[in-house]
Request: fold
Amino acid sequence: MLEQAASGLTAQEARVIAREAYVFGLPLVENYRLFALDHLPDSPHFRPSNTWRHVSRLVTPEDRDVVTPNSDTLYSEACLDLRGAPVIIETPELDGRYFCIQLVDITTNNLPYIGTRATGTSPGRFVVVGPDWKGTMPGNLHGVPVIHSASRFVLALLRIGVDGPQDVPVVAALQQRFRLLSFSDFSEGGAQRLPDIAWPPYFDPKKDETLRAFEYVNFMMQWHRFLDSAQPVLERFARIGVRAGERFDAKALPSDVRAAMLEGVKVARDDIRRTPTLYQGWELPDPKVGAYGDDYLLRAHVAWNYLYANSPEEAIYPITHRDAADQPLDGSTGRYVLRFPREALPPARFFWSVTAYDTRTRMLVENPLQRYSLGDRSRELKKSEDGSLSLFLQQEAPEARRMENWLPVPDGRFYVVLRIYGPKEEALRGRYIPPAIEALSD
Reply:
């Protein structure tokens, strides 16, 4: 069937469509990582859908579930199976503490948020409904907010703010009070028995330049109801065998079509990794993050670099790989300072942090202090007499007077993410540009 789909295609058509389909599908493949962790029997995190997995400690360099993880919050994660009936999320009293539940569909678009900013910190219930459900809400759920998803599976990512290591036990106890409830608990009749799914073993698309990604695109597409406006694009993808729920076998393609598609994949990967416009060395978040529409290239770029980025109104993530002289940040050859003038501290309603990551692994940096970020909750930070704040980014420890403001970096290239939780208006409107990171001279 795949060979028939590709028949009549010129090599140029196959190349163009493969490039477009890879950009479209890469976020779905990246998104599959947590689905695989949850559902593959040999995974250490294997468990039923609609069950929280709580990580009751701050993330360290050993954690490899997602790229560019934060060390500001405790994480919890669950895969919501919405094929049969809705799922109810129950949240406890948070007494004003920052938290958010980010609901991510198959394509990595964000659904409406639950959390301090969006819904407050009082106890609450929320109903998450998939695209196939046609039932009615029972009386005991009337008035409960309903969140609609076009995906049959949704990732729920819970983040709860942590005010330093001493606060971890308190937050870990709060995690246990978040509940996922079955719709059958509120309605007559038992839970619906759903067909089992053969989840394919996970592979890392960043390490693979073959056509294998399309096998996973086809698998993931079947769990999403795409808008009518996307149908022309999907029909074009079908010409190279990229179809929801169908088997993709690259070996069945004519050799010239297969070669052309491989060229298209290479172009797509180059496009996804291309550096966007920088401001003082920083890539500023696009306002469409989390609600991408048909900007598939932006969606792929975000998935490649910082999968599960929050929507801008929840948090923004300026990111930089370069210093003020437009040179790559490199801990093996340089020492750096990020100096915030008093009037240019990150404009956050909740809190902010600065974190360094190894460019090669996109993970946190191992260091003897086990210090992975600095920010406005770092109690020992020292400001200058003029109210400015300088953070020192280097591999080796600085002189004693700078130790409290030292953010360790790797022995090699690294990048820096500034997280602003609850960004104020100037940050949302792009009027706040972080200071350039300056190289220190010997």
